[in-house]
Amino acid sequence: PSALLLPRHVAVAVQALEGRFQFLWGIYRSHSLSEDEIVFPALESKQALRNVSHAYTLDHQQEEQLFLDLEKVIDVLRRFTGSLAQLHSHALAVRRMCAAVRASLETHIRAEESELWPLFTEHFSTEEQQYLVGVIIGRTGAQVLQTLLPWIAESFCVEEKEQMLGSLRQATKNTMFDQ
C-alpha cells in the first residue's frame, strides 16, 4: 500500500483536536500548579490536615504523564503519512488516550469536590478562602482567565454566574483586578 497524506477534512479535524487539547492542557496545568503550589501547602499548614493532599499531588503527576503521552500520539497523527489502516489505528489510539485523560480528570475532580473542598469550608475562614482565591487569580495569566471564565460560566445558571462573579469581586478586592 502506498503512503497516504491526511485528507483535508481529517487534517482540519486533527488541527481542531490539537487546539482543544492545548486549551485543556493549559487549563489543567494552571489548575494543578495552583493546587500544588498554593492550595495544598495551605491545607498542609493546618495541623489537622497533615498529608491530606499527597494523593492529589501524585494524581497530578500521573495526569501530566497522560497529557504528555497524548500529545505525542496527536503529533504522530498530525504528521501522519501511511496507509489508511495505520491512520485508523492511530485515530483509535488517540480516542483511547482521550478517554483515559477524561476518566482520570473526572475521577480526580469528583474526589476533590467531595473530599478536599469541604475541608476548606471547615478549616478556613471566608477571608482565608478569599485570600487563596486572590493569590490563585493573581498568578493566573490574564489570557488564561479571559478564556477560562466564559468557558466555565457557560455551564452555570444565572444564579451561579452571579455567585461566581460576586466571589471573584470579593477575592480580588484591593488588587489590580478591582480597578
UniProtKB/TrEMBL annotation:
Domain Hemerythrin-like residues, every copy: 14-119
Residues spanning the signal sequence: none
InterPro entries: Hemerythrin-like (IPR012312)
Superkingdom: Eukaryota
Stored Pfam families: Hemerythrin
Full protein name: Hemerythrin-like domain-containing protein
